[in-house]
Inverse folding.
């Protein structure tokens, strides 16, 4: 019960800080909108394969920019304060929850902007929406763990990018392959279900690793 209260308090703190520092959120939205506008001028209405690839590339960079600041904004003094009032596990779980919520909002907004500016070649829109939400959740979980590791280095953002891209590429390729079925006339339920279960298993593995490894970083 105490851990649940600590998680809720830390999550509330991150949400309040996000509302007070809205320039970061709007900066990411401006980045998405400007990138999509340039793509719209260059490609107008791209074919389904290109549309799908561009969407996931944009999601990757959105996640890097959104999740990196979750630990970048925590100074050493703040970390010492949180160390004195909560444990490592409630802290990392609160960060995971917050980054998942933030990425969910950004994911839905970017999908809406994609459909407005780049057209809508999807045949199975609801299936793509589900894969998009699951993919955003997975990306945010992975980069939260990487941001926690990189927070112990001076060049945090650079280290997170160096560590993150080799790890995230297999998951990104899997997401692209699964989401391609939403553009096909025939929906292969079995293959998609297996891939989605694999994605869920990878997300669960990263969460477990975060809970196990972060206490060692926390003590540093």
């Amino acid at each position: 019960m105490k851990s649940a209260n600590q998680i809720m308090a830390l999550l509330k703190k991150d949400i309040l800080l996000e509302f007070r520092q809205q320039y970061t959120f709007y900066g990411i939205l401006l980045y998405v909108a400007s990138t999509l506008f340039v793509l719209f001028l260059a490609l107008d209405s791209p074919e389904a394969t290109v549309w799908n690839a561009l969407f996931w590339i944009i999601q990757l960079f959105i996640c890097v920019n959104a999740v990196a600041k979750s630990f970048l904004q925590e100074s050493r003094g703040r970390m010492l304060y949180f160390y004195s009032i909560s444990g490592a596990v409630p802290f990392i779980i609160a960060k995971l929850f917050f980054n998942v919520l933030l990425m969910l909002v950004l994911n839905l907004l970017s999908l809406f902007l994609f459909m407005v500016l780049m057209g809508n070649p999807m045949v199975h829109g609801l299936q793509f929406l589900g894969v998009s939400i699951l993919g955003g959740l997975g990306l945010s979980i992975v980069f939260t763990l990487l941001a926690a590791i990189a927070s112990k280095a001076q060049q945090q953002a650079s280290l997170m990018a160096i560590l993150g891209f080799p790890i995230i590429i297999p998951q990104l390729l899997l997401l692209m392959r699964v989401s391609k079925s939403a553009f096909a006339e025939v929906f292969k339920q079995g293959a998609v279900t297996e891939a989605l279960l694999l994605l869920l298993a990878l997300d669960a593995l990263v969460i477990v690793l975060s809970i196990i490894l972060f206490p060692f970083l926390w003590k540093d």
